[in-house]
Amino acid sequence: MKVTYWSDYACPYCYIGETRLGKAIASLGLEGEVEVEMRAFELNPGAPYEVAGPTLDRFAAKYGLSKEEAQARIEGISQMGRDEGIEFNYATTLNTNMLDAHRLTKLAHSLGNTRFEELCYEAYFVANEVMADRDVLRRLANDAGLPQADVERVLASDEYENEVRADEREAYAMGVHAVPFFVVDGKYAISGCYPTEEMARVLAKARDEALAGGIAQGASCGPEGCSF
Question: What is the tens place of the pLDDT at every residue in 12-52?
């Protein structure tokens, strides 16, 4: 079985959804039998490479909320992450451009390495690292075991940018405008951050080829913002 999912490291629901997917796979005893492939989907391709301001202010402005309302919603999403066992610190994230992180993810995948993507999620939402900082990316890549020479080659060029854009075009062609978006075996879709039990149900039905089709809807983030 193969699960392909579109994601951005700046998307809280993507981290939570990816974690729930892992739990759903484990609950079915399918570890080692499910190939999971992350595809790139930048929520804001034009995001600056420098931190523009606090997440609270950015969130409140984006959704037209007071700071108190924004804080409550941010905390609600953070609690979702904590309920999954993640030390989730959404309120203090430092939002910047994610293109280099996605390009290095493509490098990692070309080498059969999935550890890098997990380290990127942790860096952004747990440690609140600046993901456009190439020194941060170099350290994460080293921790993931990526060859330094390959990392430097990618960072010094536009290598893998076409692959990132191709992922996004493929998503748009399918009508995907919010992430996470999961596709199971190329035919069963889950749009958004669904509960672990529901994800397991879809996986089980896909495994048994008993699911008629359709798209399950859960919380997600798009270029215009996140649902609540």
Answer: 999 999 999 999 999 999 998 999 999 999 999 999 999 98
In one-letter notation, the amino acid at residue 192 is: G
Helices 99-110 and 148-155, packing angle to 10 deg: 140
> What pTM was estimated for this model as a whole?
0.90
Spell 92-109 as b/e; 16+ CB within 10 A means b. ebbbbbbbbbbbbbbbbb
Contact partners, residue 183, CB within 8 Å, separation at least 6: 3, 4, 5, 189
Q: Give the tokens for residue 73.
A: 């919603």
DSSP β-bridge partners for residue 38:
5
- Other beta carbons within 10 angstroms of residue 33's beta carbon come to 10
The verdict on whether omega for the bond into residue 180 sits within 30 degrees of 0, i.e. cis, is yes
Task: Find the angle CA(42)-CA(78)-CA(73) to the nearest 5 degrees.
Answer: 85
Q: Count, in order, helices (H) and strands (E) of the chain.
A: 9, 7
Q: Give the start-end residues of each E strand in 8-127.
A: 35-40
pLDDT band for position 214 (50/70/90)?
low
The residue behind tokens 């990127």 is 120
Residues belonging to the chain: 228
Q: Kindly list the structural domains of the chain, giving each domain's residue range(s) and its CATH number in brackets, ordered by start.
A: 2-226 (3.40.30.10)
Beta bridge pairs of residue 39: 6
Instruction: In whole angstroms, give the CA distance from residue 30 to residue 72.
Output: 37
